[in-house]
Amino acid sequence: MEAHPTFSIERSKQLNNMGISGALSSSLSVLPIPPEEMFPKLPESQLDFVEQELMTVPLTHSSYFNSSGVVGNIFSSSPGYSTDLQHSSLSPDEKNSTNAHFITQSPSNTAQFPLPYSSNTGPPTSATPSHYSKENSTSWHADSLPSFLDFPANGSIDNNRVESSACTIMPSEEYCKQNDWQEWAEQLISDDDALTSNWGDLLTDNIQDLEPKVSKPFSQFPGHQSQGHQQPPAALYGENCTGAAQSSPANSAPAKSRMRWTPELHEAFVEAVNQLGGSEKATPKGVLKLMKVEGLTIYHVKSHLQKYRTARYRPESSEGAMEKKTSSVEEMSSLDLKTGIEITEALRLQMEVQKRLHEQLEIQRNLQLRIEEQGRYLQMMFEKQCKPGTSSTIETPSGVSSNTTRDFLDKNEMEASQVDQGRSGPSQVNGSASMEEGSPLEKEGEKPDSPKTQHAIASNDSAQAPKRQRTE
Amino acid sequence: MKFGKRLKQQIQESLPEWRDKYLSYKELKKLVRLLSSTPPTLLNGSSLEQFAKNEAEFMCLLNTQIDKFNAFFVEKEEDFIIRHMEVQQRIKRVIDLWGPNGSHPSEADYKEEMAKIRKAIVDFHGEMVLLVNYSNINYTGLAKILKKYDKRTGGLLRLPFIQKVLEQPFFTTDLISKLVRECESIIDAVFPAEEEAERAKEAKEAITVAGEGIFRNTVAALLTMQEMRKGSSTQSPFSLPPLNFPDSDFIQSIHLNAAVPIV
């Protein structure tokens, strides 16, 4: 049997603490690339400027952001592992000590990536995003650890969704802020202290905020922002980032900052419009004033009002906006039908197919999320193995730990195979060799299920099979 | 080129205004091919420069893709939010006006309006689902391209980049899915109850009606999804298991009976 990086569930919490530095270092090695990618459009000159700026930033400073950024990334992506890593336990002092650890690593890591400007541009972009991913994920994790371990399909899905949507704001913010790097860099230098103190506030406040999460993913930024912003049930790209580090990059480029509307926000909008006498009478300025949403600009309201007017006008005057989009052939043939019943049936059919597609998409998405999670998990394991200081992890009995992995993968496949069950038989017209693989596997699924069989059903993944074999 | 072909098919089947919003898979693939396979640490001088240039171009394109997805997705999402509320209000208005308990009960008007609403709402549902599909297929394409990149250059781009992608607005389709489900419950309320036997009889005729547009796109999407997951030469722990769902015969038959053959 190969030496396999293994953990028991009981140990995982302990190991997480040790694992921080390992994970941090590994993540740092990859961190330079991702943030850089978010700003490809920066002309070279601007990059140089930023580079210079950052060179002057004291090393601990940037590494602070690195660590927070990295930790933030981990948090936002590895649900079960970091519950113990409550930020309160990671005081700034600790952060700095771990920083020293991966500062030394970073030069060697950047050598791998022939993008001279990438590593330097990492820190500022990760700073703000991490702020929020951390913020959200803290409150999320306490909730999610039990569900992660049980791994009920729905529970973890919801958590994943919340988490992913809650963390959405940050990267999107990056896209908008391309022109404001210089301001960012300057403000980073000056705002470090403010940020440090804010961590504590934000985190302790957020931990309370677990409940209404799933239904309102974007409203999870509580009203405890450092500037004491009133937080409406809204999700604005610009808003939260301005709350934390910079004062006003969003306002400096209003036309560009993209806004993500939510039903709640829209309701508030409609309220305001109605108060002003309807969609025709209401003006963007008036609506903006009435809505009293921080960070909402008149441009957002204007474009939204335009869409709103279009949507209202067309259903009343014609068959409805969406109907225009579908081909007219469909409408003509439906007019030719004798009775309304047939139309209704056609619609039912369409509905069924649409439902089916949606179902499949959701399943697929969850699988994809889990696969990536698993990949991250493996990555972490490998990193830990490579690190000299964590030899104790290797000594855990392989049987126990592989069960964890197996359970994890089991759940993956169980969900996929749930869809497989109930199939009457192979149906693909496009017969190919791979199809034949599908049928025998699928038939196995109808036998009484044991975990092993379930593995066999759902995947042709040969790489997963060896994992089983190792543990047997 | 299997995915590329599938993607192309999907794009062809999709609604016109969506067609240029999908992933530029082919271009990205070309750029990956241009990248040298010698590890960057071993390159020097002009070849290193060249590599850096190519890589930068690749990254740039990758990021513009993501921007494109985000912009489109968020805009459509906004539209859907507005439409969702509108549909509900429209139904309410019709019921209040022409419904049995309304202010001007009129069965004819009521029925006619309801029929229109039914069509509108089913199409609305369909469009939302197609947006989710859009998100998914672009994600899949990105994952594939990143895999190719890593394979070609020996780099470690895939894992961290995908983590970032998972957080992007265009991938977080929860709100849309929620709207879809709400739509489904509205539809259940709005559709009259039918006898099972009658339904089976009508279903056959219904097939000929549902030809173009959203429905066609949906069918194509489902089949594409199935095809893509049938099993590839490069199965790995990161691959999705094969997709099998009941009634895929039926869906295949719809597909084949469509007015315009789907090549």
Automatic annotation (TrEMBL), chain A:
<keyword id="KW-0805">Transcription regulation</keyword>
<feature type="region of interest" description="Disordered">
    <location>
        <begin position="82"/>
        <end position="138"/>
    </location>
</feature>
<dbReference type="InterPro" id="IPR025756">
    <property type="entry name" value="Myb_CC_LHEQLE"/>
</dbReference>
<dbReference type="InterPro" id="IPR009057">
    <property type="entry name" value="Homeodomain-like_sf"/>
</dbReference>
<dbReference type="GO" id="GO:0010468">
    <property type="term" value="P:regulation of gene expression"/>
</dbReference>
<feature type="region of interest" description="Disordered">
    <location>
        <begin position="388"/>
        <end position="472"/>
    </location>
</feature>
<feature type="region of interest" description="Disordered">
    <location>
        <begin position="312"/>
        <end position="331"/>
    </location>
</feature>
<feature type="compositionally biased region" description="Polar residues">
    <location>
        <begin position="453"/>
        <end position="463"/>
    </location>
</feature>
<dbReference type="InterPro" id="IPR017930">
    <property type="entry name" value="Myb_dom"/>
</dbReference>
<dbReference type="InterPro" id="IPR046955">
    <property type="entry name" value="PHR1-like"/>
</dbReference>
<feature type="domain" description="HTH myb-type">
    <location>
        <begin position="253"/>
        <end position="313"/>
    </location>
</feature>
<dbReference type="InterPro" id="IPR006447">
    <property type="entry name" value="Myb_dom_plants"/>
</dbReference>
<feature type="compositionally biased region" description="Low complexity">
    <location>
        <begin position="244"/>
        <end position="256"/>
    </location>
</feature>
<keyword id="KW-0539">Nucleus</keyword>
<dbReference type="InterPro" id="IPR001005">
    <property type="entry name" value="SANT/Myb"/>
</dbReference>
<keyword id="KW-0175">Coiled coil</keyword>
<feature type="compositionally biased region" description="Basic and acidic residues">
    <location>
        <begin position="440"/>
        <end position="452"/>
    </location>
</feature>
<dbReference type="GO" id="GO:0005634">
    <property type="term" value="C:nucleus"/>
</dbReference>
<dbReference type="Pfam" id="PF00249">
    <property type="entry name" value="Myb_DNA-binding"/>
</dbReference>
<feature type="compositionally biased region" description="Polar residues">
    <location>
        <begin position="418"/>
        <end position="433"/>
    </location>
</feature>
<feature type="compositionally biased region" description="Polar residues">
    <location>
        <begin position="388"/>
        <end position="406"/>
    </location>
</feature>
<feature type="compositionally biased region" description="Low complexity">
    <location>
        <begin position="219"/>
        <end position="232"/>
    </location>
</feature>
TrEMBL record, chain B:
<dbReference type="GO" id="GO:0033554">
    <property type="term" value="P:cellular response to stress"/>
</dbReference>
<dbReference type="InterPro" id="IPR031142">
    <property type="entry name" value="SPX_prot"/>
</dbReference>
<dbReference type="InterPro" id="IPR004331">
    <property type="entry name" value="SPX_dom"/>
</dbReference>
<dbReference type="Pfam" id="PF03105">
    <property type="entry name" value="SPX"/>
</dbReference>
<feature type="domain" description="SPX">
    <location>
        <begin position="1"/>
        <end position="163"/>
    </location>
</feature>
<protein>
    <recommendedName>
        <fullName>SPX domain-containing protein</fullName>
    </recommendedName>
</protein>
